[in-house]
Amino acid sequence: MKHERFCGIYPAVKANSLDLTRQSMRRLLPSEIYYVEVMSHVLTWHTKYDIDIANAVKNKLLQEGALQALLRNVNACDEIWTVSRGAGENLRSIGYEGDYIVMPNGVDLPREKVSEAMIIEITSGYDLPVGVPCFLFIGRLMWYKGLRIILDALKSLDNDGADFRMVFVGGGGDEREVHEYTAELGLTGKVIFTGAISDRDKLRAWYQRADLFLFPSTFDTNGLVVREAAASDTASVIIKDSCASEGVTDGRNGFLIDENADSMAVKLRELCADPECMRKVGRCAGDELYISWQDAVATAYDRYGVVIDNYKSGVYGRRDAVRGSWMQSQGELMQILGDIGSAGKELKRDIDETQAEVETSLRSMRNKAIVDAYRLPVLLHSPRNGYAMEESHRHKHARAGDIGQLARTKLHRNIDVRR
C-alpha cells in the first residue's frame, strides 16, 4: 500500500505514505484541504455543519446554497466515515442518501492514572473539601453544550442544602454569560472556573479528582471528553439518545438522563448518596468506552487499505471529480460565512459599547441641567448681583425664578433617560 495514492478529506492523508499520525489526521479547516493526484476520496463527517451554517448566516437562501454545495462535495466522495451513528443521521437529514461507516475516534490520554501527588499539586489551589462530591465539565463554555442544564440542576441541589463542588475547565464565547448566570443563581461559592487548560497531564489530574463528569450536550457528534473521562475511570452523566450516549448503558458504564435540569438534579441526588456506585460505573466506563488514539489509527489504516482495493476493483463506480480549485472555493465560502458571523458579533459589541457611552453622557447632561435649573434663581437673587435693585428690575427677577421652577418641573417630568 505504500505507493498507492488517494485523498482523505477530513482527515487528509498524504499521498505516497499512509502517515496517520495525529498531526496528519488533525481537523483541518476547509480552506486548508489540499489537492493531490488521487485514486479515491474519503470524507469524514464529524460535526453538525447545518447548525454551524445556520449560526453563521441567517439568510435562508444562503443557508440552503451552502448546504447544497456541501452535499455535492459529500456525494463526490467514494466513502463516507462518521464518528457516530448520530453524526451519520445528521448527514442524512441534509439530503445525503448514500451509505456511511461509523469510524469512532480515540483519545490521546493513556489509561494509566497520574499520581496522587500530581492531583494535589494541580487542584490544591481550589476549594475542594475532602468528601464533598466534585462534578466536572471540560470543554468550550458555550450554552449549546448544555451548561444551563448543569447550573439549574446544581441550583436545585443547593436549594436542598446539598454540598458539592462544580469545576468548569475551558473558555469560550459564552464564558462571561456563564459566570454571570452562576452568580445570579447564588452558586459562586460552589462553582469553580479554571479557565482553559491545554496540558494533557493536568487534564488527567482533573478527570481523576472528579467523582462525575457532566456532559449534557446534544450538539456534539462524538463526545470525546466522555472517553477521556473513561480513561481515568470517571463515569459520565449524558443525555440519552445523544451521540455521546452511543455505547452507554445506564447504570453500567454511564448514567443517562432526559434533556432537562430536573432529570439531572434527580440523578445527582441519587449518586451523591451512593459514591460506591459512581466508582463502580467509572471503572466499567474505562473497560468498555475507552478507545486509545493508537487503536483508532490502526482501524482507520486497515480501512484505507479496503478503500484502495475497492477503488481498483470498481466497487465505487464513477463519481464526479473533486478538484482542488473547487475545494478551495468551498473553503473560502465557509471562511466568508464565518467572518460574517464574527463581524456581526463584533458589530453588536461596538453598538453596546457606544450605547453605554451615550447613556453615560446623557445622564451627565441631565444631572448638569437639573443642577443648573436649581441654581438659576439663586444666582439671579444672590448678593453678588445686589439686592438694591430698581423696582423695574424686580419683576424680571421674579419671572426668572418662575422660569427656573418651570425648568426643574419639566426636567423631572419629561427627561426619559435610561438609568
The helix-strand sequence is EEHHEHEHEHEHEHEHEEHHHHH
Approximate shape: flat
Question: How would you write the strand order of the largest sheet?
Answer: 7-6-5-8-9-10
Low-confidence regions: 1-38, 385-400, 410-419
First-last Cα distance: 72 Å
Strand content: 5-15%
Helical amount: 40-55%
Rg from alpha-carbon coordinates: 31 Å
Briefly note the structural class of the backbone.
alpha/beta
Outline the biggest β-sheet.
6 strands, parallel
User: How many extended strands?
Assistant: 10
Describe the structure.
The protein is of the alpha/beta class and 419 residues long. The protein is 50% helix and 10% strand. The protein has helices at residues 49-56, 60-75, 85-93, 116-123, 147-159, 175-184, 200-209, 224-231, 261-272, 275-288, 293-312, 324-380, 391-414, and strands at 7-9, 41-45, 79-82, 101-102, 134-138, 165-169, 191-195, 212-215, 236-239, 255-257. A 6-stranded parallel β-sheet has the order 7-6-5-8-9-10, sandwiched between helices. α1 packs antiparallel against α2 (60-75) and α4 packs across α7. It is flat, with a radius of gyration of 31 Å. The relative contact order is 0.12. Mean pLDDT is 80; it is low at 1-38, 385-400 and 410-419.
Properties at a glance:
single chain; 10 strands; disordered C terminus; six-stranded parallel sheet; 419 residues
Summarize the structure.
The longest helix has 57 residues, at 324-380. The protein is built from 13 helices and ten strands. A six-stranded parallel β-sheet has the order 7-6-5-8-9-10, with helices on both faces.
